[in-house]
Amino acid sequence: MKITVLASGSGGNVTFIETEKTKLLLDCGITHRQIVQRLKERDQNLDGLNGILVTHEHGDHIKGVDVTMKKTTAKTYLTEDTFNGLYFKTKDNLNHNQIELITPYEKFKINDIEVLPISVSHDAKDAVGYILYHNGKKVVYLTDVGYLPNRDHELLQNAEFYIFESNYDVTLLFTSNRPFYLKQRIDSVKGHMSNTDSAYNMTQLVGDKTKQIILAHRSRECNTPELAIETYAEVFKEYGLNIEDYNIIVASQDIPSDIFTL
Questions:
Q1: Which of 16-30, 79-93, 166-180 shows the lowest per-residue confidence on average (mean pLDDT)?
Q2: Model pLDDT for residues 139-193, shown as the tens digit of each residue
């Protein structure tokens, strides 16, 4: 399995997954043209795209869905509530024959990849994250999540690869010029995950199989890559973990990541 984070942040989120038999997009939050260009930068392409896995209906996760569906034969997978919550102009642009409705905690297969959607706490209609299984390996994709309930820990533990939200630094958020109601929304259980919360949650998830953690959906205004990594280092040290064992990096909004192979 090859994994490339094409974009991550409030400006748009897309991750590309490729195996010998399957090509998937996790979210589709930048334009189709941008997706094609960023894949080209990594000598990849959308030829034969099999599916688009949508986490929720916010624009930074579905901006390019309509055009990408028209340009490919890929099906788009999302919950019924997410589909119903789409902006009406976006919904009207979709080929409904390419829509596959999914249910949280019910597995399905796309060729050689098994997919498990799980419910996440976010201010959307029915937001989900995804766990992907392929050849005995597990990839966890969780962005836009306010908190992580204990009920899901066992499902999420000891994955080889995590793409996991680390959105904001608490001090930068509450000293920013953003309206107070927005600060409260971001910092709520239905908002986003801070660097500290992200790191503490990750200490409960990593295991001996974990090889890579990509910190996702970083706020440009209320976070920096350096703060995210520093916070992880401090929290991991508190739990007797060394971040160097997990190859932790921060995903970019504008530059596609390297291609990671599992």
A1: 79-93
A2: 999 999 999 999 999 999 999 999 999 999 999 999 999 999 999 999 999 999 9
Beta pairing partners, 249: 214
Say if residues 40 and 259 touch (Cβ distance below 8 Å): no
- Determine how β-strand 113-119 pairs with β-strand 75-79: unpaired
CA atoms within 13 A on the CB side of 104: 15
Distance CA 18, CA 20 (A): 7
In this structure, are strands 137-142 and 248-250 parallel, antiparallel, or unpaired? unpaired
Per-residue H/E/C for the chain: CEEEEEECCCCCCEEEEECCCCEEEECCCCCHHHHHHHHHHCCCCCCCCCEEECCCCCHHHHCCHHHHHHHCCCEEEEEHHHHHCCCHHHHHHCCHHHEEEECCCCCEEECCEEEEEEECCCCCCCCEEEEEEECCEEEEEECCCCCCCHHHHHHHCCCCEEEEECCECHHHHHCCCCCHHHHHHHCCCCCCCEHHHHHHHHHCCCCCCCCEEEEECCCCCCCCHHHHHHHHHHHHHHCCCCHHHCCEEECCCCCCCCCEEC
How confident is the model over 242-254, as pLDDT tens digits?
A: 999 999 999 999 9
Do residues 14 and 172 touch, judged by C-beta distance below 8 A? no
Query: Phi/psi of residue 142, each to 5°?
Result: -135, 105
Q: What is the pTM of this model?
A: 0.96
Task: Report the chain's terminal Cα–Cα distance, integer Å.
Answer: 5
